[in-house]
Amino acid sequence: MCADFRMSREEILKALASVAYPGFTRDIVSFGLVKGVEVDGAGKVVVEISVTTSKPDIPEKIETAARAALEKIGCGDAEIKISVTTPRAPSSAGTLPPAEKIVGVKKIIAVASGKGGVGKSTVSVNLAAALARVLEERGVAPAEGSVGIFDCDVYGPSIPAMLGISEAPELVGEKMRPRESHGIKVMSMGLFLDDDTPVVWRGPMLQKAIKQFVEDVDWGALEVLVVDLPPGTGDAQITLAQTLALDGVVVVTTPQNIAASVARRGARMFPRMNVPILGVVENMSYFDDNASGERNYIFGKGGGANTALVLGTEFFGELPLSQKMRECGDAGTPITIAEPESIPAQVFHSIAELVLLELDKNEERLRASRKS
User: Fold this and answer.
1) What does the alpha-carbon distance between residue 149 and residue 140 come to, in Å, rounded to a whole number?
2) Fewer beta carbons within 10 angstroms: which end of the chain, N or C?
C-alpha cells in the first residue's frame, strides 16, 4: 500500500512520467504505454503497462525504473503488470515469389513513407551521400561510385534535380549505365522525361517499367543501393519488394500525429513481404530560430520516436527543418556534400552509421539462423 492513502492517480502518473523508455529520452507516459492506474480505498496501487518489443530486457528495465519511481513517492509495493506484444514476424519465404539480387550490388535498402510531402527524396539523396562517406571512413570502399540511388518514384521523380543531373543514361550493349553525380550512381524515370511530360500509367505499365529498370541496368560494383520509393503502399512498392531482394527499409515521417499514423500503417506492409524495417527517420522535426536561440517544434513532437516504438524498430534521429538543406537540394548538391559540418549533415552521418549497423545485425541473425 502507498504510504499516503490519498495518493491520486495523477500523482502516480507524474512519477511514472520520469521513467524514460530504454534508449529514448521520451517517457513511458507520453508514449502511451501506461494503460491503467488504479488506486483503491485501502491505498493499493495497480499499474498496467503495455510494451511492443522483441527485446526481452526492455520490459525488465521499464519495470525496475517504474518501481524505483514509485518508491520515491511511497508506493514501492505497487503491483506493476506489464503485457508484452512481439512485433509481427515476416511471413514465411514460401508465400512470395523469390526476389533477386542485383549482380555486383551487396546491399539494397529502400526509403519509404506512408504519405507524400515528408521529404523522403531529400532523405534518400543525403543518406546515400552519407553512406558513401561512412564507407570511405571505414576503409570499405572509396566514396566515388560505392553507392547508388534507384529513383522508383515514377510519378514524381526528383532525385536527378537534387543531384544536378539532366542527361539520359548511356546505353552500353543491351544494358543502361547509370549517370553519376557527386560520386553517386543514379537511375531515374526523370532522366527520360522533360519537365512538362506527365506520367499517366496504370499498374501493369508501372510494374513493367520497374522490372525493366531492375533487369536492364548495369550498376557495376556497389556497396549499397538506395531505392527511393513513391509514397504509399501501391503497385510500385509491391512490385519492388517482389522483384528485388531488399535488405531493409528506412521509414521517413514528420512529427505530427497524422503523418506518423500514415507512416506506421504503410510500414507494416514490409515485414509481411519479408523486408525488415531498419529504423525510422523523423524529418522537419524542429526549427532553430537564430534570432531567439529557441528550438521551435512547428509540426509537433515525438511522432518519429513513437512510430519506431510502435513498429518495434530503431529510431535513427531527428532532422531539422532547414532552409539550407532545401537550397542545397534545389541547387543539385545535397547538404551532406555541400556543407558536411552542418547540423543536418552530421545527423545524416549518424543515420548512415546506424543503418549500416542494423544491416550488420541482420546479417548476423541470418547467419545464426542458417547454422541452427
Assistant:
1) 19
2) C
Mean pLDDT of 15-21: 88
Interstrand relation of 314-318 and 277-282 (parallel, antiparallel or unpaired): parallel
Strands 147-151 and 184-188: parallel
Across the strands, what pairs with 184? 147, 181
What is the β-pairing status of strands 34-39 and 45-52?
Answer: antiparallel
The per-residue pLDDT for range 185-208, each reduced to its tens digit, is 998 877 766 555 555 445 555 666
Residues 148/225, Cβ–Cβ less than 8 Å: yes
Highest averaged pLDDT of the listed ranges 36-50, 285-299, 347-361: 347-361
Whole-number CA gyration radius for the chain: 23
Among 270, 219, 243, residue whose Cα is nearest residue 100: 243
Whole-prediction pTM: 0.73
Task: Give yes or no for a contact between 9 and 43, defined as CB atoms under 8 angstroms apart.
Answer: no
CA angle 194, 198, 202 (to 5 degrees): 135
- The DSSP line for 173-215 is TTEEE-EEETTEEEEEGGGGS-TT------HHHHHHHHHHHHH
Alpha-carbon gap, residue 37 to 57, rounded angstroms = 23
- The pLDDT assigned to 372 comes to 62
Question: Which pLDDT does position 6 carry in this prediction?
Answer: 57
Q: Are 248 and 131 in contact (CB under 8 A)?
A: no
Question: Cα separation of 12 and 38, whole Å?
Answer: 10
φ, ψ at 240 (rounded to 5°): -65, -45
Rounded-to-integer distance, Cα 228 and Cα 217, Å: 16
Grid cell, residue 39, equals 488506486
